[in-house]
Fold:
Amino acid sequence: MAILIKNASQLLTMPGEGVRVGQAMRDLGIIERGCMLIEDGYILEVGSIEKIEREHPVLSEHAEEIDASGCVVMPGLIDCHTHLVHGGTRENEFNMRLNGASYMDIMNAGGGIYATTKRTAEATFDELYYKAYRHLNDALLYGVTTMEVKSGYGLQWPVEEKQLRVARKLNKTHKISIVSTFMGAHAIPLDYQGQEDAFVDIIIDEMLPQVDDLATFNDVFCEHGVYTPEQARRILEAGKQYGLIPKIHADEIEPYEGAELAAKVGAISAEHLLVASDRGIEQMAKQGVVAVLLPGTAFFLQAPYARARYMIDSGVPVALATDFNPGSSPTINLQFMMNLACMHMGMTLEEVLIATTANAACAIGRENITGALHAGKKADVVIMDVPNYKQLQYYYGVNHVKTVLKNGEVVVNNKQLVH
Ligand code: IZC
Ligand code: ZN
Structure:
């Protein structure tokens, strides 16, 4: 079946291939009065109506039409860092932080990640599945068509596996595509405090061999008081032997040479980087490691924001994500993350759009499939109810999504989920 999206006041193609750095992060490839022809879930042609009718006369005549006049048409958003599958909520800790406690104080007192680990262990498969499914519906309404999802609230294989199996089922049943990451090293279990290396051995010897095709990536929380750079290195190197691609939660709370480690182990991305060093940023640029920046975490922890401007100016490819999790960033709203990046991280209106589409796809190895509106890519498309892309951040705090297509199928129509 063919679909013809017509008359977009701006159609953003996101030109180029691979990671976008420097000036390429400002090039949206705008086509005014833009049209797009979709066939069998893939983009067949993008351009003016004249070009499409000339090159595909029969198909364009019989296609189902979607009128995008007065709207921006752009690639579906990609949330390339989330902890979607988890039990429970942590609003009480939020109030503790508002009363002066810090994120790490709460975690060290057995709350934080430990609190969610307990709730995730207690939850049944179905409870985790339905909770995550509802959050995915919200994300889809906000224009997300692909999401990366981490385990990490198990700290023991059976619960890690439960999370990964929930993510796998969601990938089959929900419209949003899910890309999975194993994160056995998200915290040190309370009964391994003081014997951290013994738990690292368990991850390497007992968990990694069982991940198999349940995940594509292997992530570690490299942070003072959690995993040291050396422990993180061992886990990431071991994961490579099972085909798991390294990612790192790096330099989130204290500088810890996480960015340097990401470059050294050949990670596809390094996440957070709120306090990454100049040297680490330089090394990431050299290796083409994507910086996945999570401004929702800085906002919600009332912490300093990552130095996105400096990173982009240093040649690092930058992506943005929500970090959706019950502790440090309980939001699925990627449009708000773009706004925070403009307001607090020195990013421009163009850069935040590349950071949530083309570069986000690169951060999870999906750039051949999605993240740009080019012929041959999957038709993951969002129609935003604004006449130009600058209004996306100008009218902030509202959801601009009108229509979402996933694999060429309309899944959100007039701001409503299509069932
Ligand atoms: O549950 O607090 N930083 N991991 C590393 C998190 C935040 C998630 C959480
Ligand atoms: Zn995270």
In short: The radius of gyration is 21 Å. The pocket of zinc ion (ligand 2) is lined by residues 81, 83, 249, 271, 323, 325 (CB under 6 Å). The chain is about 40% helix and 20% strand. The CA atoms of residues 360 and 366 lie 8 Å apart.
